[in-house]
Please model this.
Amino acid sequence: MTTAPVLCGLGTWLPPRAVSNEDLTTELDTSDEWIRSRTGIGVRHIADPGTATSDLAVEAGRRALKSAGVEKVDAVVLATTTPDQPCPATAPLVAAQLGLGQVPAFDVGAVCTGFLYATTAASGLIALGSARTVLVIGSDVYSRILDPTDRSTRVIFGDGAGAVVLRAGEPDEPGALGRAQLGSDGTGADLVSIRSGGSREPLRAENAAEADPYFRMNGKSVFRNAVERMADTSRAVAQEAGWAVDDIDHLVAHQANLRILRAVADRLKLPHERCPVHLDRVGNTAAASLPLALADAVESGRLRPGDRTVLTAFGGGLTWGACALRWPEIHPY
Ligand code: UT7
Model:
């Protein structure tokens, strides 16, 4: 019998401080009307100074373990663009703080597609027999990398973390992940980037005046690419699962912009109600976006056991991906 990775636990964590669109108008030349009509976002959560990606990841991870009813896992994979520090990776620290012992633990960097990439890496560990259970976490503190004066990014992103537990199981059981479709196009690397602070342009006192340590995004180009890639990969994984596109009960897409979610649904000719919306309350939480949206969909009673579910994401890199599963019986914390 083939081994399949099966989703068996889901946990999330948001930093408590909620920042409304109105709050942002005190610092930026923007308005609630602009933000809502162009993005669909109303509120985002922002981590207090001193709270790092690992702090959010530990909370979400603990909740996912509780949801799965386990105390130990064989590996930890963490998707993030905002590690606690450039070196070492954040995952080993998270594993240690969760009391998971000396398990393999590593970070995955695929920006907003990170959670799907991390899930696929974890699935590979399970398929190889290297692990029977894996904790996969998406955690980001984008508020730390945004230019405080840049209204085009400040209004979009929020901080948060979400995690799932995968276990070795069988391909036909609920929660079994189908083969993911992942892709990248590095010719678009400059569309979402932080120019300074890496090996090409290290941050040094002598270049501080010319350096740009902040996250920058060409929103318009990203928008167009995101719609095409998420729609195309979603169609492909549905087909591989043996479903017509219209069979998809829920297309849970990376929560970047309400207009993107609607455009993906339109391209696939799916009713908008089948694309759950969570970004109105949390903004774009990057690697945390998919597990946060899943938990919200379950808690609101929309996503139910047995539902045909497609997860899809798009992000810097450029990177994108999708994967299909029948939703399992789980209680998120
Ligand atoms: O998560 C990774 C993937 N990321 C994404 O998928 C993001 C994709 N892109 C987007 O969601 C949208 O492109 C944005 C929300 C980022 C921007 O929306 P847009 O409709 O593409 O607006 P725009 O960038 O074309 O800006 C339109 C106008 C500009 O003014 P002018 O040049 O027309 O005078 C901007 O300066 O809106 C202005 N603007 C703002 N106005 C008020 C930009 N940001 C703001 C703001 N408040 N916060």
